Amino acid sequence: MLRTEDLSVHYATSRGYIHALDNISLDVASGETVGIVGETGCGKSTLGKAILSILPPRTRVTGHLLFRGTDLNALDREALRRLQGEEIALIFQDPVTRLNPLMTIQEHFLETIRAHQKVSKREALERTTAALTSMRVPESRIRNYPHEFSGGMRQRIMIALALVLTPSLLVADEPTTSLDVIVEAQILEILQDLKRNYRMSLLLITHNLGIVAEVCDRVAVLYAGKVVELGSVTDIFARPVHPYTRLLLQSIIHLDTKELRSIDGQPPDLLFPPSGCRFHPRCPYAKPVCQEKVPPLEEFRPGQSAACLFGKDFV
Amino acid sequence: MPRRSSLFAYGVTRLVMAFPMLLILLTVVFAVLRIIPGDPIYALYGGRAPPSVVMAQRHKLGLDQPLYLQFANYIAQVFTGNFGTSLGPIFGGQNVLDVIMQRLPATIELAIGSMLVATIIGMSVGILSGINRDRIVDVVGRLYGTIIFVIPIFWLGLMLQFVFAVDLKWFPVNSRFDVSIPPPVPITGLYTIDSLLQGRLDAFAVAVRHLFLPCLTLGLVLSGFFTKTVRANLLRTVGADYVEAARARGIRRRAIVMRYAFKNALIPVITVLGLEFAILFAGAVLTETTFNWNGMGLLLVNSIEVQDYPLIQGTIIVYSFIIVIISLMVDFLNGLIDPRVRY
Amino acid sequence: MTESDDSFADLKAQQPVLPRPFLGRLLYPLMENRRTLAGVLSWIGLGIVVAFIVIAVLAPILAPYPVQGPSAIVAPKLQPPSLTHLMGTDESGQDVFSRVLWGAQTSLEVMAIGVVLALAIGFPVGLYSGYSGGAVDRIILLVMDSIYAFPGLLLALLVAVMLGKGVFNIGIAITVIYIPLYYRVTRNQTLSIREEPYVEAARGLGARPWTIMWSYIAYNVLVTIPVIFALSAADAILTAAGLSFLGLGIQWPTPDWGLDLSIANTFGDIGNGIWWTSFFPGLMIILLTVGLSFLGEGLNDIVNPLLRKERA
């Protein structure tokens, strides 16, 4: 369904290029749910925006972004526009600011539907109510304005809006981060339903390892704009290879956690990323060579790869 | 649970809140005119009248009563529309309110025309500036916004007169109408509207020619602030989160500009329009003086020259009323466009 | 901070308790930023304003001809600009160039009285109001907001009418309309600074309210004042010119830019093709206002980010 090959995204700023993503290669099969995990600022959101082709102007994008075999980076604007919303959809993190305050919910939906398909108003309205009902948003409120809804409702509306045209690939950027746990559980349930019933591919971007464990089939761990580990959920959680993944898993709090452990240091400045392996300044196992050589993504087990020069020591 | 925003309820609320504002303005006028030292009656007679005459006049106008009584009378008079009679040489003896109403349409015509000019220029420059951020067009636009605001209106008016009226002879130098043809019969008092209503295109043409330079002058100066606001808002909306979300849904760029950026950017502009009206009136006074335009502004200036106290007071009070009414309309418009405001 | 530090060392020695000296906080960023656009703008603005002050002070020396009284009538009326009269002559035969130079004095006088007085009144009242809070604050706020609600020129007009003729009275009229502005700005700043930890600390240590108000709060508010001062001065010049254009206050034959324009208008000079009697006085108004605006806006761009950084 989706494959990226050596995808790099660099933002142009007055101080230089920010290396948000460097040589990202991963893939999502049809009907699969892949999780993208990492700390804040590791490039997760950038990946989401890159897939949807809504990066700001003057951003340098290199590499291939293949959706069903077609390179999105090579398409023209109109072709991209047709895909956006209809084949590929994006759910944003903050529902509060993502809806136009001057438009009613109904107007949002009608606009989206009509931007892609020629249907009558009645048909569009039917689809709207169907989408909203499936997200448990009362149909009677279709004429309300965004500010009249709570945060959780707004996120559900956003999801409904993303799904109304039944896209094949859904990218969810931290969909539950700004919501309370109960609403989060509801949303996750809905996502699982979609996965089961519609065979929709889902790219779930989050920093919450818990939901990744629950919902995803495979996981990609990102650090400082690079993929450091890639594998199935079971492999990653039970048998992590990369030091970063291991430290990340160690820092999760369980019921029987006695000591809080975090990773020393701060994520690096992506204007001038560290040489060699980008994790070396914070890695407890770092050796001098880690500063010089950029570790490639090597497959250490069938279906599990990591970008570490000493990966086999951790298998 | 939030309820449906009601435009009607909002309108009524604004209406009720307008009264305190009106009262405040009226009080300020009263305070300045009666509390500040300086005897207008004495000055009216050029200091030449005997004290007894001055006393008699003061008594007639109720100026020798205690302040709170004066205030009470004042408010009562204002709300019953009794502004007294003019004391000056020009309009002596006429009802102040009548005189003001005669001249009001001219100012309204000027105001509307100028606002049109200001809006058109302001929005065009603002939008162009915002769309082409940081390029030459933008820099020029921003410079325009800053500089035009500091040019004295009367100087601009005089210079425009010189270039367009005297040098190029495209427009007349001043006043509202020519003496060569009869003016239209006053229905609204606005020469342009009246001529159209009567089907007199010749009169219409003349009226517009006379209207052009004054409106251009006032409009240009007002547009400066407009430009900056429009630009700032456009930039803010274009980068907004919901615009990004709309792009991700495949909404066409043109639709985004029209329904998202444009409409959202307009909101503060409506408020600015309201604020500008206050500046508009100050500007109108200066413009009317420059172009010998027979409106309220010129009336005010003339009555100041002859120290016609009731007329001065009456004019300022009418101005206050107009300001409050305009504020009300702007608030209402705002509520119409932006549903968030309605509570 | 290298050189600037030393030159203000004695100032610092005098007041060891307070944050960096006021002038230092202002000039240092100006020096630092002299290459940025905002910095350049401020310097240009400052230069223009200083130039005008110099002109005003040295007018008696710089002006080639006298400007008041019978000796001022030096040439035939309404002569276009020439080598002997750089800006031509006006309706009474006076040299426009000399009048324009002397006009700087009048303008600066009005500005000095008007804006400085407004600051002198508005600042302490705002400080007091903001710090005290409660009923006192509300009442003063109501009064100030009422005045503020009234269109500036109209209010100044009214005041000027009541007070009568004279430069001083125009100054007072200007004062009246700007007091609410200074009051507002000071009050808002006071309100936010009042909650700062070091103020609370001072209160906890038992400092008298007067001391707190002046040494702590006022000092910090003061940094934002120059920006407002410059910008309102620009506006004041325009308003004052407007007032004299309408025939208030300043009387003939005092040289004043607004007055000169008024006379030019009354005599219908433009209609007769005489542009120099209006053009040059107006140009001076524009230049001075632009200078003050540049100074104000430039300072604003420099000082505000610094304040935000300091407070963050």
Tell me what you see in this structure.
The complex is a heterotrimer of chains A (315), B (343) and C (312). Chain A has 315 residues and is of the alpha/beta class. Chain A is built from eleven helices and twelve strands. Chain A has an eight-stranded mixed sheet, with helices on both faces. Chain A has a four-stranded antiparallel sheet with strand order 2-1-4-5, covered by helices on one side. The two termini of chain A are 30 Å apart. Chain B is mainly alpha-helical. Chain B contains 13 helices and no strands. Chain C has a single domain, classed as Orthogonal Bundle (MetI-like fold). Chain C has 13 helices and no strands. The longest helix of chain C has 37 residues. The radius of gyration of chain C is 23 Å and the shape is elongated. The N terminus of chain C is likely disordered. Chains in contact: A-B, B-C. At the B-C interface, helix 1, helix 6, helix 7, helix 11 and helix 12 of B face helix 6, helix 7, helix 11, helix 12 and helix 13 of C.
Number of beta strands of chain B = 0
Task: State the shape of chain B.
Answer: globular
End-to-end CA span of chain A: 30 Å
Order of helices and strands of chain A: EEEHEEHEHHHEHEHEEHHHEEH
Count of helical stretches of chain A:
11
Characterize the quaternary organization of these chains.
heterotrimer
Measured by DSSP, the beta-strand proportion of chain A falls in: 15-25%
Provide keyphrases for this structure:
heterotrimer, A: 315 residues, alpha/beta, eight-stranded mixed beta sheet, four-stranded antiparallel beta sheet, 11 helices, 32% helix, 24% strand, globular, B: 343 residues, mainly alpha, 13 helices, 0% strand
Layout of SSEs?
The complex is a heterotrimer of chains A (315), B (343) and C (312).
Chain A: E1 2-13, E2 16-28, E3 33-37, H1 44-51, E4 59-67, E5 70-71, H2 77-83, E6 88-91, H3 105-116, H4 121-134, H5 151-163, E7 169-173, H6 181-198, E8 201-206, H7 209-215, E9 218-223, E10 226-232, H8 233-238, H9 243-250, H10 288-292, E11 298-301, E12 304-306, H11 311-314
Parallel strand pairs in A: 3-8, 3-9, 6-7, 7-8
Antiparallel strand pairs in A: 1-2, 1-4, 4-5, 9-10, 10-12, 11-12
Helix pairs in contact in A: 3-4, 4-5
Chain B: H1 7-35, H2 40-44, H3 51-60, H4 67-80, H5 96-131, H6 136-150, H7 153-167, H8 191-197, H9 201-238, H10 241-248, H11 253-291, H12 296-305, H13 309-337
Chain C: H1 3-7, H2 9-14, H3 22-32, H4 37-62, H5 96-132, H6 134-149, H7 152-163, H8 167-194, H9 197-204, H10 209-222, H11 225-245, H12 257-266, H13 276-311
